[in-house]
Design a protein that fits this description.
This protein is an all-alpha fold and about 450 residues long. It is about 80% helix and about 0% strand. It folds into 2 domains: about 270 residues, no CATH class; about 180 residues, no CATH class.
């Protein structure tokens, strides 16, 4: 480890210099794109007289948005490599591996993107916000520490500064509509669609995946600070942890705002939808008219428990990478899945159907949803880790299929709110059955080809 650290220290300065030299022409290209956009917008008579809140010409504000979205787009596309990248096996490799791809396609473009944005923030009064400037300066410092004094957190930067940028793409149109209200007036449908896409991508990337990746990053960093892993720079590690805490708090703060807006929109829709009592009465009628569908719905609750039981039984035969998850050990995850089956049954199969329950319906609903969404976030993050493992022997399509199957919750929830109870029962059953069926196939395939089975045959 010391020899590896010494090698990195000897090569750190050239890497830092190369990153900055690569960022300079990229920044120039972004500013040229800004200038070209300004010229195009100025050539349109309709927009020549449009102004921002502080009198800035519309062409300059549009140029800024095109420039910043171009930077976000490059980072997001480059960051998509995170979803299929192999996860390093050790904390030292996850923290200190030097990844040329990250230096070239994430760090250098990130510095160029931040620098061009800062220049425009200082030049245009509508953008001169202290929070934005502080955010970009902090992110720039983190980018510098990623190459100096040693290559640092490249594996994590691929997500934090790359894949997570996917949620910022629809935000560009939203911000432009705020800066220039005539744009929103000209395309109200586009504004609403951008808000919906942004909310969905933000919740997925920033509220589900971001915390899961953060937990692993903190775990690795604390190992380095304790000395269990050779720590190249305690100062850089502490600065990264503090910055990550601030940025994560910002994500959660924005997430609360977004969730409140979603809740407000859902409340408005719910006010025009059938009442809870009406929906419950419909479900009680379906128990008599569609008994098989209701039985399948009630039985689906225990799909979680089935997955937990099979996972627990297969743990000794699974490869090392499959014996833990992002948030906890494999045994704890299996136990949580077993518990989820019971909670889901009490909420979905008893309380939702209007049956009396101990305590209150709200309590069972809260417990069920809290554990269900925690398990879903953990499963989504763990799916990427397991799929990227060299020990995975299952079909590679299972990981994305399982994550995509979580989307069945959306039509399930919409049908419930709108009072369409037959499709609700079908979709909610799919929300239980499909992800668990895929998870079972993945676990069983991997266990069949895992080291435990191979070792038994060899003996």
């Amino acid at each position: 480890a010391n020899r590896h650290r010494h090698t990195m220290l000897g090569e750190a300065t050239p890497r830092s210099t190369l990153m900055l030299s690569a960022a300079a022409p990229l920044m120039l290209w972004l500013l040229l794109l800004f200038a070209a956009t300004v010229c195009v917008v100025e050539s349109r008579p309709r927009w020549r007289s449009a102004r921002g809140a502080h009198g800035t010409r519309a062409s300059l504000l549009v140029g800024y948005q095109v420039c910043t979205v171009a930077g976000n787009l490059y980072l997001a596309v480059a960051g998509c490599a995170w979803f299929g990248a192999e996860v390093p096996a050790t904390a030292a490799d996850r923290l200190y591996s030097d990844l040329p791809y990250v230096r070239k396609h994430v760090l250098a473009p990130l510095v160029a993107h931040l620098a061009s944005d800062l220049l425009l923030y200082l030049s245009l009064p509508e953008l001169r916000q202290p929070a934005l400037i502080a955010h970009h300066l902090l992110t720039g410092a983190l980018a510098h520490l990623a190459t100096h004094p040693v290559p640092y957190t490249h594996h994590y930067i691929l997500f934090f500064a790359g894949a997570a940028e996917l949620s910022n793409l629809p935000l560009g149109w939203i911000e432009l509509c705020k800066l220039l209200p005539p744009v929103r007036a000209a395309s109200p449908g586009g504004y609403s669609a951008a808000r919906a896409v942004f909310a969905a991508s933000f919740v997925t990337l920033r509220l589900l995946l971001w915390p899961a990746v953060t937990v692993r990053f903190w775990s690795d960093s604390l190992l380095a600070l304790r000395g269990d892993v050779a720590c190249a720079s305690r100062g850089a590690t502490l600065f990264y942890l503090a910055s990550n805490a601030v940025l994560t708090a910002m994500q959660l703060g924005w997430g609360v705002i977004i969730c409140r807006r979603i809740a407000a929109a859902a409340s408005a829709a719910a006010s025009a939808a059938p009442s809870l009592e009406h929906r419950t009465a419909q479900l009680r009628k379906l128990e008599a008219s569609r008994p098989r569908l209701v039985f399948a719905y009630r039985a689906s609750c225990f799909a979680y428990s089935a997955t937990g039981a099979v996972y627990a039984a297969c743990l000794p035969r699974l490869p090392t990478a499959f014996r833990s998850t992002v948030l906890c050990g494999g045994g704890w995850f299996a136990a949580a899945l077993l518990l989820q089956g019971g909670l889901s049954f009490m909420n979905d199969a008893v309380a939702t159907l209007g049956r009396p329950v101990p305590f209150s319906r709200r309590l069972w609903q809260t417990l069920d949803r809290l554990l269900a969404w925690t398990l879903t976030a953990n499963a989504a993050a763990t799916a990427r880790v397991w799929a990227a493992s060299a020990e995975s022997t299952a079909h590679p399509a299972l990981a994305p299929a399982m994550v995509l199957s979580f989307l069945t919750f959306i039509p399930s929830r919409l049908c419930e709110v709108w009072g369409r109870m037959v499709p609700f029962l079908a979709w909610h059953s799919a929300w239980h059955y499909v992800p668990n069926a895929i998870a079972l196939a993945w676990i069983l395939q991997t266990a069949a080809g895992g080291p435990g089975a191979g070792g038994a045959e060899a003996e």
